């Protein structure tokens, strides 16, 4: 029997699938939405060993993680995250996402699932300011995404701050590259202090795995930094991104 050792948290389209493959390539046991999925949260398993999961759906469960769990807060350029979550056309991202989860009813009425409740709690006033009716399209959808991006990251930070027995490490996905290979080495050693892979092996892993591994739709460029409210731009700067 063993408890989960680490969780990589972030937003959808922030690179959790990519980091799971990188950590697996480094010889670590890392799932992608394997333990934190659409309707599950697993923090212990029968097998011994060091293991973890990379999943944006872990966020509602962070405050209940076993003592000693490491929470990696993975950031990706906010503009890229927002545009990746915004469709080029057709149904709204949120409705399409709901159908992809196998849940056919409108996300408004599926609040029993923790990550859905989180989204409902942080975006309802932005999407349905008049209450009820069809989902608005255009600027309101963009504002909903921006509001959600800010609140989801705050949820991650605040959940860990309330738990002195958890370890919190934030890093930017863009910094995870061959030129900065020691970042991945540091991450691996936090997970497993006995991890021994060196520069050559780390660079080989980073070179073998594409950072566009989960690009299943055409890139979107509808959202720009000029569209972000001041509070979002300040948040972006706090996470190490230049809004200009």
Number of helices: 8
Shape: globular
Identify the CATH class of the largest domain: Alpha Beta
- Poorly predicted tracts of residues: 96-110, 125-137
Number of strands: 9
Q: How many domains in all?
A: 2
The run of helices and strands is EEHEEEEEEHHHHEHHH
Written description of the protein model:
It is a single chain. This protein has 244 residues and is α/β, with parallel strands linked by helices. It has two domains: 2-78 and 164-208, P-loop containing nucleotide triphosphate hydrolases (Rossmann fold, 3-Layer(aba) Sandwich); 79-156 and 217-238, no CATH class. 38% of the residues lie in helices and 13% in strands. It is built from eight helices and nine strands. The radius of gyration is 18 Å and the shape is globular. The protein starts with a strand and ends in a 6-residue tail after the last helix. The model is unreliable at 96-110 and 125-137 (pLDDT under 50).
């Amino acid at each position: 029997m063993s408890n989960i050792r680490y969780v990589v948290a972030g937003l959808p389209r922030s690179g959790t699938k990519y980091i799971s493959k990188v950590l697996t390539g480094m010889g670590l046991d890392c799932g992608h939405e394997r333990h934190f999925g659409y309707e599950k949260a697993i923090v212990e398993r029968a097998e011994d060993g060091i293991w973890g999961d990379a999943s944006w759906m872990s966020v509602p469960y962070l405050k209940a993680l076993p003592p000693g769990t490491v929470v990696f807060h993975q950031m990706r350029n906010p503009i890229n995250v927002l545009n990746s979550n915004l469709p080029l056309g057709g149904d709204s991202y949120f409705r399409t996402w709901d159908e992809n989860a196998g849940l056919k009813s409108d996300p408004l009425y599926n609040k029993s699932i923790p990550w859905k409740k989180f989204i409902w709690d942080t975006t309802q006033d932005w999407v349905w300011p008049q209450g009820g009716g069809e989902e608005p399209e255009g600027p309101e959808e963009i504002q909903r995404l921006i509001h959600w991006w800010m609140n989801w990251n705050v949820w991650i930070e605040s959940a860990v701050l309330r738990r002195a027995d958890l370890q919190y490490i934030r890093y930017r996905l863009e910094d995870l590259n061959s030129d900065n290979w020691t970042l991945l080495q540091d991450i691996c050693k936090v997970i497993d202090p006995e991890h021994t892979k060196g520069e050559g092996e780390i660079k080989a892993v980073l070179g073998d795995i594409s950072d566009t591994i989960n690009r299943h739709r055409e890139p979107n460029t509808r959202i720009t930094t000029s569209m972000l409210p001041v509070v979002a731009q300040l948040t972006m700067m706090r996470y190490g991104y230049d809004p200009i």
